[in-house]
Amino acid sequence: MATVTALDSRKKKASETSVSAPAEASPERKTIRNLSPADGEPLAPVNVTTPDEVRAAVQRAKRAQAAWARMPIEERAERVLRFRDALVENADRLVDVLVRETGKPRNEALLHEILVVADLASYFAHNAARILAPQSISLHFLVHRASYVHYAPKGVIGVISPWNFPFAIPMGDVIPALLAGNAVVVKPSEVTPLIALEAKRIYDSTGLPEDLFQVVPGDGATGQALIESGIQKLIFTGGVATGKRVASACGAQLVPCVMELGGKAPLLALSDCDVERTARAIVYGGFCNSGQACISVERVYAHRSIHDPLVRRVKELVNELKQGDASKSFVDVGSIIFGKQMEVAEQLIADAVAKGAEVVAGGERVHRAGNYFQPTVLTECHHGMAVMREEIFGPIVPIQRIDSDEEGIALANDSHLGLNAYVFSKSRERALRVAEKIEAGSVVVNDVMLNYGACETPFGGLKESGFGRVHGDDSLREMCDKRHVNYGRIPMPSRDPLWFPYSQTSYSIFSKGLEVLFHGAGLVQRIVKKIP
Ligand code: NAD
User: Fold this and answer.
1) Active-site positions?
2) Which residues are CB-neighbours of 509 under 8 A, at least 6 positions away?
3) What are the tens digits of pLDDT across the range 93-121?
């Protein structure tokens, strides 16, 4: 069997490649050779794209984009919906690839990856014309003129993505970029390149222009090459340390970028929360995708009055979870996608226990083929422990007792990250009051993990969680250059009195005008500025 490459993927149909059988690698080039985290078996090797190939891919994308951008937006939307339909038709196949490559449960692969993308494609395809329609701007001062902005595609958008949602994250950027009239080149994580290549094969089967969406598998050097290959914008999703390097590489090229970085989502369980729902939310939010989500519940602040019953229920629910190889049976918790995260988990647990934490569930890796770590719950935690301050990105939920809403808010905000947060309370008013005080890009009340699926809402972080937003109507506009056009509403004389030549007389007229307009609460100022 041949090695999977971005280039030969153009010639294959969706059903022709296997992700699980070992394959020959090209001797002359770097190859990604991953093992399935589900069972430790080798996955198909993937050739790393060279910097020259990345540059060539961006050039081809530019040429394809020129014709695509001329197409009316309604036609682009119709073609993108064809791609969505092909993804839905191939959903089982995509789920199989995701499960082999990540070890995540089939339900999560279907709902959190495929469904999220299909829904996002529908929303943006049906709304792109409205969102990208020109907008007029009324001018309060230059009333003889009129302005509007219109949105022109940027060109080629680069996408660099992580391994935790290796389909939903890149494809959630690819689809709006295409609708906006751009071409896209995706550099998937070296940990999970196969699902991106599968998406590309399905795309090619729909008859859309092949060079308009390309995948360049590789590592950090491939990502760096993409930034330096003449793209007009980068959407990066990954860790904070990498994000800083990537942002500075973008700065050196003056490539505008969106930075979707780490998260440390707090969950505040207020004194009046529904204990059963909150316990279930902690277990789901902490252990779905084995805790490897930027919006996973990474720390819990539980009010003293409900702390003990909440912990008791969380422990019972964790003990009911079925963990195992998602490619063999329906399990609740699958494997750890990137094996090194198990070392991170072990270090964080050891540090917490040394500083007084109690392990009430789990605490260890599972010794079996593949990468498995027990869903772990820690209590008696405090901010002196790394587990409460550093991103875990694994199946650990640390819990700390609080005495008031204010203490919960202060602890939630005592973080260098600010992506997502959760508040649980039976009082909507109280929950919203708390939510608005939390420094996070999104706060969800009485639910967990769902806001990434609400594609009409902005998603992104504060502080070191990054800048810029994906999703939401503005994200589609930001895939474009916002261009301003200004024109006259009334005929103007050939000799414009504001232009040359200057004279004492014209200066005196303008000077009087300034006085009439702005001195005191002048009548003209009130009228022009519509001040009541
Ligand atoms: P990572 O930062 O290690 O890698 C992300 C991507 O960057 C990969 O494709 C990698 O190959 C590439 N890369 C590495 N060095 C590069 C360089 N110098 N130039 C260009 N590209 C380079 O992240 P990861 O381990 O794949 O993912 C986990 C991280 O992603 C976590 O911190 C998580 O919180 C974050 N994440 C954030 C969001 C969000 O929306 N905010 C979503 C998912 C994951």
Assistant:
1) 260, 294
2) none
3) 999 999 999 999 999 999 999 999 999 99
